[in-house]
Structures are given as C-alpha cells and as structure tokens.
C-alpha cells in the first residue's frame, strides 16, 4: 500500500515522529508491521527502536519508545524536531486506560512538544472487548486538548487495519499546519 522500508531517500518530505504509550500497547508490533508489512514477534522495548519508511512520497523516521515507567522519563531526549506523535493505547486493556490518560496528560505538558500534532492510535481493535473510538475519546478527554491538532485512529497491528490511516492523519495535519502558515 505504498509503504516500504527505506535506506536511502530522494524525496523532499521528511518527517520525524515518535511512537509512545504504555508498555504492552503494541507500539513495536505496529512499527514493524509498517516496515515489513507482516506481523513480527516483538519483545518489550528496553530503550527505543528507530526505523525509516517511505509512505506516499514521504520519509517517516519513527522512534518507537519503550513504555515501561522507568524508560518514560528518557522520552524527552528524543522530542527535538518531532513533527508528530503517535500515542498508542491498548484499546482492549480497560484496566490501564486511566494510566494511559495520565501519561497523555504528562506528554502534552512537555515544552518541546507544544503544538505538535497527535494521533491517538487505538490499537488492538481486533480483540473482543476492545473499547470503541468514541469511548476512548471520552476516557482520554481528547475533546479538551487545545493548542494542537489531535485525532484518534482505531488500528490492529495484527490485521494491519487502520495503520496507514494513522500516517495519513499525520500527513493531513502537516498539510494543515503548512497551509495555515501561509
């Protein structure tokens, strides 16, 4: 679907994005699904993974940040020149949605990320009992986010559903920001 791993890039549109969220939300599986087009077995990320892909004539450098609590304090070191945030949640984990909401609030307080567009990636939509997007919008209080473009995208790293739409949202936000600058 127009997405490939890239070693050299000759296009003109380069985007550096971070993929963050609680541990176990599926960030690494999502990233490698984008890179390979297949499901790969992922182990907990103890630091970060970084991959570059080309999608719709845009180069995305994706920083997949480990979500364990002791690693999260290091995230801020990777926020410089970020053009978008993919905030990944496990939409089938009702027990940790409050923790995800607190983490999102903390993330939005970082000065380096002021105004940076965010796509909440509601992963694991293929699982029974997964929360619907409208419920996640309410639980994460997304309607109260101001000063940045924000949306939600349901995905499944296993089936591949919605993953490219998350990247499309980053591109749409980028276009909107460039258009509004004049």
UniProtKB/TrEMBL annotation:
**Could you tell me which InterPro entries the record lists for this protein?**
P-loop_NTPase, Small_GTP-bd, Small_GTPase_ARF, Small_GTPase_ARF/SAR
Task: Please tell me where Mg(2+) binds in this chain.
Answer: 28, 45
Question: One of this protein's GO BP terms?
Answer: establishment of cell polarity
**Residues that coordinate or bind GTP:** 21-28, 67, 123-126
Q: Which SMART domains match?
A: ARF, RAB, RAS, SAR
Record Pfam families: Arf
Asked if the keyword tRNA processing belongs to this entry, the reply reads: no
Q: Which keywords are on file for this protein? A: GTP-binding, Magnesium, Metal-binding, Nucleotide-binding
Q: Name one GO molecular function term.
A: GTPase activity
Q: What domain of life does the UniProt record list for this protein's source?
A: Eukaryota
Q: Does the keyword Transferase apply?
A: no
* Similarity remark: Belongs to the small GTPase superfamily. Arf family.
- Protein name (record): Uncharacterized protein
**Which organism is this protein's natural source?**
Mytilus galloprovincialis (Mediterranean mussel)
